[in-house]
Write a structure and sequence with these properties.
heterodimer; A: Immunoglobulin-like; B: 188 residues; mainly beta; Sortase, Chain: A; 8-stranded mixed beta barrel; two-stranded antiparallel ribbon; 10 strands; 9% helix; globular
Amino acid sequence: MKAQAVLGSAAVGVGFGTLLLPAVALADTTVSPATTPVGGTVVLTATTCNPKDGDVIFHVTGPNRDQNVRSTTAAAGGGLSAELFTAGFTLGTYTVAATCGNGSSAGSAQFTVTPIGGAPAGGGGSSAGGTTAAVAFTAGGALLGAGATGLVVLLRRRRHAGAVA
Amino acid sequence: MVTGTGLLAAGLNLAPTPPPRPGSTAAPDRSVSPGTALSRSVPVRVEIPAISVRAEVVPVAADADGRLEVPPLDRPTVAGWYRPGASPGEAGNAVIVGHVDSLRGPAVFFNLGRLRAGDTIRVTRSDGEVVTFAVDGVGSYPKDRFPTDRVYGGGAAARLRLITCGGRFDLRQGDYLDNIVVFASRVR
C-alpha cells in the first residue's frame, strides 16, 4: 500500500515534470529586445550552452528568413550570444531555435520586427496651421501679389496716357 | 485682390478644430485571462460607438522606408489593419491605423483621443466573428518616441491597438508630430 502510494507520487512527479519541461526549455534561449524596428539589432542568447562545447547555432525562421547564425561571444549571464542585424527583414514574427555545440537543443524564442517610428496618419486639414491653411495662405499671397502688380501697371499706363494727352 | 486678401485671412485662421487630445497618459494593459484565442482572419470593419465610428478596414504593411503604411489620403474614411501582425481576436496585438484628418477635414479616427477606459470597440472579421474589445487607456506619444514594444509586442491575450496622428501639425514636415494610441483588450 505504501509502495503503491510512493509509485503513485513518483508517477505524478514525472508527469508534472514532463509538463513543465517545454516551458523550462523555452527559457534557455532569449532574444533581446523582443521587438525591434526593422533595421535594428537583436541579441540572441543560449543561456545554458557551455562555451567549452563549441559555438551555438541559432536557426532563425520567419516571413522571409531561414538562416543560421553562429554565436560570437560569451554572454555575461552565462551561455553564448550572437547579434542579428534586421535590415532587409520582412515585418513580422521570427522564431529562433538554438542548438548547443554538443548538439543538444537549447530551446527557442521569438522576436518581432516592426515598422519604424509612428504612423503618418494625417493630412493636416483639420488643424489650425494645417496643409489646407497653408495652401490657402500661399494662394492668397500669390493672388494678392498678382493684384498689386496689375494695379501698378494700370496706374503707370494711366499716368503715361495723361502725359501724352 | 479681394479674393487674395480673403484667402490670406482664411490661411491664417482656417479650420479651428484640432484633433482631441487624450485626457491622461495611457494606463497599463488590464490583466486579462488569455481565454480561447481565435484563429487568423482578416478584419473587414471596425465600430466604435462612443465616437460614432463605423469604418471599412483594409490590409496595410509598411512603406519603402519601413514606416507603417496608412490607407491613401483620398480614402480618409477607411482604416488599415497591420497585416504582418496578429488579426483581431488572435493571440497577440492586432494593430489598426486610421487618418486623423485629410486635406479636406476630419477623417476616420479624428476623435480617437476622446476615448476613455471601458469604451467598446467591435471588429468584424471575414469569418463572420465579431470581436469585442474594451479600452484600457489612450496615450499621446511623439513619433520619435513611439512605444513600439507596447504596440507591436504581444502575449497570449488578444489585444487591439488603434493608431492615429495627434499633437501639432508641422508645416515643414507636412505631418503631425505625435501619435495617439488606444490600448484595448478583448472582452468577448
